[in-house]
Design brief:
Helix 1 packs parallel to helix 6, helix 4 (56-68) packs across helix 7 and helix 5 crosses helix 7. 73% of the residues lie in helices and 0% in strands. By secondary structure, the protein is mainly α. It is built from seven helices and no strands. 25% of the residues are buried. Mean pLDDT is 78; it is low at 1-9. The chain has one domain.
Length: 122
Amino acid sequence: MQRGFLSSNETVRLVARRILIGEGIGSQDWRTMLGELIAQLDRPDVTAGVLTTLDPRIAAQLERRAAAASMTVADFAAGAVREFVEHADDDLWFQLITIVRKSDDPSLTAVQTILTWVVTER
């Protein structure tokens, strides 16, 4: 039986996702917290809490983008983070991992970073 191998890009994404969503290296606590935070972002109270930790200009831009898409901020934020987890390219994953590893609150930092990237020109 031949074993299939992932391309380097697929491997990078797989490792990065595992690190961020709970199957890889690092503290179990923050990985669990990140997974829970992502799972609960569609709750308005959770999203409101995250928005209060962002630069007010970023939070306002998220609110404008959500309104332009005829979505609640909670739905927009949850969708944006989930979209990132599923489709971000290798460079963004590496950048996010670097930022998260330096943080005292990695799960919140990951979500803050993703939401900031959603509304800023990169």
